[in-house]
Amino acid sequence: MTTFLGTPGIGNLRGDEPFPRAARRALQDSQMRRNVGHATRTIRAKRLAAVSECADWEQLRAAGSALKQDVLARLPELLEQLEANVTARGGVVHWARDADEANRIVTDLIRVTGADEVVKVKSMATQEIGLNEHLEAEGIATIETDLAELIVQLGHDKPSHILVPAIHRNRAEIREIFQREMPDAGELTDEPRVLAMAARAHLRRKFLSAKVAVSGANFGVADTGTLTVIESEGNGRMCLTLPKTLITVMGIEKIVPTFTDLDVFMQLLPRSSTAERMNPYTSMWTGVHAGDGPDEFHLVLLDNGRTNVLADEIGRAALHCIRCSACLNVCPVYERTGGHAYGSVYPGPIGAILSPQLTGTHGHHDPNATLPYASSLCGACFDACPVRIDIPSILVHLRAAQVDSERGGLPSGQDLAMKAAAWAMTSPRLFTAAEKALAAGRIVANSDHRITALPWPGSKWTSSRDIPEPPKETFRQSWTRTHGGKKR
Amino acid sequence: MRIALFATCLADAMFPKAAIATVTLLERLGHEVVFPHKQTCCGQMHINTGYLAEATALVRHHVEAFEDAHCEAVVAPSGSCVGSVRHQHVMVARRAGDEALAVRAEAVAARTYELSELLIDVLNVRDVGAYYPHRVTYHPTCHSLRMLRVGDKPLELLRHVRGITLVDLPDADSCCGFGGTFAIKNSDTSTAMLADKMTNVIASGAEVCSAGDSSCLMHIGGGLSRIRSGVRTVHLAEILAFTESSDHPEMAAPR
After folding, report:
1. What is the band of B247 on the pLDDT scale with cuts at 50, 70, 90?
2. How near does any CA of chain B get to the CA of A416, in Å?
3. pLDDT tens, B154-179?
4. What is the gyration radius of the CA atoms in chain A, in angstroms?
5. DSSP letters along B143-190, please?
6. The model's pTM
7. How much is the average pLDDT of A116-127?
């Protein structure tokens, strides 16, 4: 028996430089630091308040986690059930192995309608496959209708957050972008209402003229064939109901078994992502209905590396993710580096475990191989995750997989150091000798007993931190002196 | 109670005062402390850097050292080392396919405590009889907070210290940026996190920043020392061991 291990994920899932280098540059962007720092601190406090209102929050998290585990255990069966129900209600289901296939399917579907312009609902799946870039190259214009996504698009920029893709921008920067890219908007101020009204007027014309809409989906219900988009602005509702053709691209893990399972996720998602008790717009659609909404509905089911992730017993929990972005908002690394440093459209803690698994990695210089190390393992992400993804443990698991994948080759300096340390640490005699050698470090200390400069890689520490000189006496020596006669 | 000290490799080699203070404190409270000489390191650094195969030998070594100690409890002046013992050792053993070791590791983990847990949960003491006439702020380390869930046990102990002025640390539960090899591999990001932690420590107005982990204190203290902030770091155990008639007057003083 052979196991189909899927094709690796491609598209906007990998940056072009290792995380430490990208982060180093990002950290120098003082405007981004201030914008992301302010936004994440604000949403963190709000999320905590929204979550603490629910007495049964921990049970909800456990339920969400259990549902997702069940989904992953029965994925093939549930996907076929979804396909059957969507088809029975007049929709058409397409299967895409990777980003290229998905882009080709969507392009062909748009071509048939004759449209040269599509409106888009904010969607991580289409960001992942680079649909906009692909369609632009094919001569089809895409219009992002989510406000933050529009800001990113008009700014010829990249998203830096799962929920708030323009989180790295402040309102002065947004005013500038709008002023430049919406020439008929008149003179704008940086008042949020003025900016929102300008975007509203700009988008309203597009909603009314568009023949085709492209969306993602938060959930696909297997037992009814219902698709769901959860949003705040109402732009999604416009896209999902006005155009004649609706094309939805959904990752295969976004499935839930039954309609009632939405109960759990619709409590978990809004509070975790926007810190709202309930999101303003929930759109659900099941197939097509004459005279009501689109005449044609296409569902593109996207793998793009997900089958590979599913094959990893520990790593597969990353597929539980419901894209709330709570882990980004609480992450001390993300808060400082922002999202672009992660290279992939999935930044932050979830991105650090999802991107490398979706793409697979090739050697430790692969930018995605550096992502599992982009964490101090502080654990804030696990606490915030509404579906209890143990991100720190998966980060360690992926680090181990990375180290193991390079065994047998020429050992790196780190490999040698770790092996030597493990060797010394399994022998108290060697360990004591190593401690004695460490005491020699006292000679590099300054007269005030601090060490301020070490050679590489110690320089990575002493570039910003001192180390006290090693003590005159280790604990072991002190114990022998004070408790010497007492054996063990 | 007969308690085995798990000194941790970092405290043993670099910050012996934290381990000495743990012994002083527990002996003052009337307990017998033993130090299993075989112990070295729990392997946390290896595990968190991805060297699980190498860590397996360290886990076995650690388990043997503390099985042989025949103690009711094992205590360490470190939340993250206890976190590794309790939350990672079994996983490391299982991953290596050694179920027997996993079972033994689980038994050792079940009686291993971080200092504040041992004092409050096992020994049921809140006032340890300490005296520490200084303005102190407390940094709850990530692993003690989110892995071990010690909650405000360390603060509860500090509140009972005579003469202490305990001041709040703004954004206390944010990571200081240490993260083991993270501080080296992602040194710039680590430093950015440290800068905010130091800003908060200084804003608290404290002369001493305390925590239950020598590693985090090495990081915060290394930064505070580099900028000549005038704030020093002192391990929680050293504060709790200090009394009016302390035999170790140098213990909690600056180096």
Report:
1. low
2. 11
3. 999 999 999 999 999 999 999 999 99
4. 26
5. IIIIIS--TTHHHHHHHTSBT-EEEPPTTTTS--S-TTTHHHHTHHHH
6. 0.96
7. 97
Least CB–CB distance from B225: residue in A396, A402, A450: A450
Distance CA A253, CA A323 (A): 12
pLDDT in tens, A234-269: 999 999 999 999 999 999 999 999 999 999 999 999
| Inter-chain residue contact B180 with A377, CB threshold 8 Å | yes
d(Cα A107, Cα A137) in Å, to the nearest integer? 11
Neighbour count for residue A421 (Cβ, 10 Å): 21
CA distance B146 to A72: 27
Name the residue of chain A whose CA is nearest to B223's CA.
Answer: A465
Asked which of A425-439, B102-116, B130-144 is least confident by mean pLDDT, the reply is A425-439
The residues pairing with B131 across neighbouring beta strands, listed in sequence order, are: B162
- CB within 8 Å of chain B, chain A residues 11-70: 19-20, 23-24, 27
Does the beta-carbon distance from A474 to B40 stay under 8 Å?
no
Residue where the block lists tokens 């430490």: A20
Provide the ipTM.
0.95
Alpha-carbon distance of B20 to B36, in angstroms, equals 14
Q: Which of B16, B39, B190 sits opposite A474 (nearest CB)?
A: B16
Q: Can you state the angle between helices A147-154 and A171-181, rounded to 10 degrees? A: 60
Between chains, do B49 and A463 touch, taking CB under 8 Å as contact?
no
Lowest pLDDT segment from A223-237, A240-254, A313-327, B240-254: B240-254
How far apart CA B239 and CA B22 sit, in angstroms, is 10
CA nearest to A419 within chain B: B54
Give pLDDT, residue A488.
47
CA distance A18 to A183: 39
Q: What pLDDT shows up at residue B198?
A: 98
